[in-house]
Design a protein that fits this description.
Rossmann fold; about 350 residues; 2 domains; about 65% helix; two-stranded antiparallel ribbon; single chain; alpha/beta
Length: about 350
């Protein structure tokens, strides 16, 4: 009996470990990137154990087919989406992101067969090994953030906020773009839900091709919807997501004069987790609230967000590079010294 309990504990230990780490980290602070990693590890270890323990023989073939087909289906879907985005928004680095990700997936699977076919030298094989290792971490974190971002957007909102920060998203002339209008409408919905209490922070500067600041356009939109002018704070200097929050924090701190407050950070659903994470880094007590994004635009927008989050959490890529470089450097040194 005791041995059975120990065996079961050992089998379930990875699932218990990652589940516990996720629960504790999420309880401490939901706005952390590592929560996404712990959650996906928990899901994978738990699913693997349940399948190994309770799975039936007939399940093996369909699961294997799904796993094998997923990369091909992803490539087709990404290329199709990229074509749609380019047709609607024009060709740009941002609109080409789905196609770029599709090419990356193809490269992950094709690089070694291609190298073997060409009879590539050992140094090239070594470089491609580095590409695969970095690519595996990239793929894991992309999936992790995709799963966790979906969960984060579903968190219930029951708080009353002192400030509702609206992130800018471009203008059509002097009017908010459809994306920005969606963010403002979501902020209004939140404000009305809490009894029209709290202040809006319209956050967005004036671009080189814009007639007025995004903050001014947002304020005009809010006033037309019945929001009193004295309930709107203009933050019209920011040009990036982080500046949106830095400058908004300064205005909120000034108004509250040292008193504590809580804010809602309203942005598009694909963007909301990064906004919430930046707010955490800046010491703002805030929750992220996401507005709806059109389905055809969502993949390209999410990939862009993932790239920004990856830049902020790049140390694993550097660690993989170092771990790859050490044995290769030793091998080169031995070769130079004439050691077998």
């Amino acid at each position: 009996m005791f041995e059975t309990v120990i065996t079961q504990f050992i089998l379930w230990f990875p699932s218990i470990l990652f589940g516990g780490l996720f629960a504790y980290s999420f309880w401490r602070e939901p706005r952390q990137f590592r929560n996404a990693l712990f959650l996906l590890l928990f899901i994978l270890t738990t699913a693997s154990l349940l399948l190994a323990r309770y799975g039936q023989d007939w399940m093996i073939l369909p699961i294997a087919l799904i796993i094998l087909a997923s990369p091909f289906a992803s490539v087709i879907a990404l290329i199709a989406n990229g074509i749609i985005v380019i047709r609607r928004n024009g060709l740009s680095a941002s609109s080409a992101l789905p196609i770029a990700l599709a090419l990356f997936i193809i490269g992950m699977f094709a690089v070694f067969p291609f190298a073997a076919f060409l009879g590539a030298p050992s140094w090239f094989i070594s470089l491609m090994t580095l590409f695969i290792l970095e690519g595996l971490w990239f793929s894991f974190t992309l999936l992790a953030l995709l799963v966790y971002s979906f969960l984060y957007r579903l968190l219930p909102i029951r708080r009353t906020y002192d400030f509702i920060i609206i992130h800018g998203a471009g203008l059509n002339g002097t009017e908010p773009s459809p994306v920005l209008a969606g963010r403002i409408d979501k902020a209004l919905e939140l404000w009305e839900r809490q009894g029209c209490d709290g202040m809006f922070v319209a956050s967005g500067g004036q671009g080189a091709d814009e007639e007025i600041s995004e903050a001014e356009a947002m304020a005009r939109y809010l006033i037309r919807r019945g929001v009193p002018e004295d309930r709107i704070i203009h933050e019209d200097n920011s040009t990036t997501t982080r500046e949106n929050l830095e400058y908004s924090k300064a205005l909120m701190d000034e108004r509250m004069a040292g008193k504590s407050y809580r804010a809602a950070v309203v942005s598009s659903d694909y963007h909301v987790f990064r906004c919430a994470e930046y707010a955490k880094d800046l010491g703002i007590a805030a929750d992220g609230v996401g507005s709806h994004t059109r389905s055809w635009l969502w993949p390209a927008a999410f990939i862009r967000e993932f790239a920004a989050i990856t830049r902020a959490h790049a140390w694993p890529y550097r660690a993989i590079l170092i771990l790859w470089a050490i044995p290769n450097a030793l091998a080169l040194l031995m070769w130079l010294l004439g050691i077998a």
